[in-house]
Amino acid sequence: SGVGTATSSGIVAISSSDSGSSGDSGSVSISSGTSTDDSGSVSISTGSSSGSGTSGDLSFSTGDSSSGVGGAVVFSVGSSGSSTGGAIRLNGGSGTSSGGNIYLKPGSGTTGGSVYFVNPSTGANYGVISEEIIDFSGISTVSIDSSGTIDISSSTTLTISGSNGISFGGSYMFNYERGAGTVGTATSGQVTIDKMAGTITSESTSLSSSATEVITLLNSRVLASSAVFVTMGGSVDCLLSVVRTTPSSGQIDITVANFGALACNGAYTMHFQIMN
């Protein structure tokens, strides 16, 4: 089109004519020629903006359909008979503050569209990402690797399951939910620790030889069906053992006995873990 020396330059429109009352409209084809060496490139771009405005958009779209299926937009790379097939790259623009994003937006409808991953050999879908799910059950193994940290979180419940079990690969595990408390801080004989594991410090400081006492751990994580593990920590002079744990909804009654010949000379500690 013509150059605009003061205002906008002219428009260039390439299109086929409309069809009649029946039939298809004509196609438009833009291509370079074949070659025994490298074939020519086809470049479609918008101009740069040297002022304060934005550069022009580049839009690829198909027309709407009143009753049939909307046309597809296909970007494909030619095959190679002897080397590696060409790549398709989607690159966001660079910026002095933030780089440009890349958005994949399926179409809306009674059922929203999804993003599918297709096996190049069989043409079968092996993975799908939608608003509700990320499903790669079409392949046997999926690996997520990072040279740093991978964070997976949920605002409600995070479920990890495996039909043959869950393996942590022999890795060191840490940062369990853990707390601590002293019996009798609020109510005699009771301590509240709403954690899956923790340390309890006794209220009593001189449990007699052959004597027992019951400590009630109030814990919102506990169910009547919970598996509870309690081990003795430190004690002075006495020989203590946990002889009974009785879980119920919201609490555990822990019975401790002194099997030593001497009374305890100070408070003692216990460690607990709850499994639901």
Could you provide a short overview of the structure?
With 276 residues, the chain is an all-beta fold.
What does this entry look like structurally?
With 276 residues, this protein is mainly beta. The protein is built from no helices and 11 strands. The chain has strands at 115-118, 125-129, 134-135, 178-182, 190-192, 197-201, 212-218, 227-232, 240-248, 251-258, 269-275. The strands form 3 sheets. It has a 4-stranded mixed β-sheet, with no helix packed on it. The chain is elongated and about 105 Å long. The model has no long low-confidence stretch (mean pLDDT 88).
Strand count = 11
Radius of gyration (CA) equals 35 Å
What are the low-pLDDT stretches, counting only 5+ consecutive residues below 50?
A: none
Percentage of residues in DSSP E strands = 15-25%
Summarize the main sheet.
4 strands, mixed
> What order do the helices and strands follow?
EEEEEEEEEEE
C-alpha termini separation: 73 Å
Class computed from helices, strands and strand pairing: mainly beta
Give the count of helical stretches.
0
Shape: elongated
Helix content: under 10%
Provide the residue-averaged pLDDT.
Answer: 88
Strand order of the largest sheet: 4-6-11-8
